[in-house]
């Protein structure tokens, strides 16, 4: 496990050093509490590298996704729109999926803190996230089932953060 994390860290550093596009979101809960940070960086391989560091969440599995609009102003975070979908269907369990912004569920232990790293194939921070209305990151109340349309039946939105460039 340490080898995988080290390799991912080195890959992230190499991409950042090469001038790759990077976006970071500071997440807040519906009560305004600090929930964590998400960073997405383009890599030389053409896959983006996402690092999600969360705290203060209820124990259990939570769907986590990049959403299409950089706006967390609504009290229930619906202002962030739907998943960053491009022309794809939702979920890895369906033909035509997944959305570019779909990440694996975050499995939060009893202490409420978790780190998730994921590679996003065929994902470009510059092309998909740096458009006129930006992008946001959402943590859902329940797990993503990886197949229900359009969003994996992951429930309400617990936390939101707007991505900003570095």
From TrEMBL:
Every Superoxide dismutase copper/zinc binding domain range: 36-162
GO BP terms in the entry: superoxide metabolic process
Nuclease among keywords: no
Domain of life of the native organism: Bacteria
Keywords linked to the UniProt accession: Signal
A GO term, aspect molecular function: copper ion binding
Signal peptide positions on this chain: 1-20
PROSITE patterns: SOD_CU_ZN_1
Family statement: Belongs to the Cu-Zn superoxide dismutase family.
PANTHER family from the UniProt entry: SUPEROXIDE DISMUTASE CU-ZN -RELATED
Protein name according to UniProt: Superoxide dismutase, Cu-Zn family
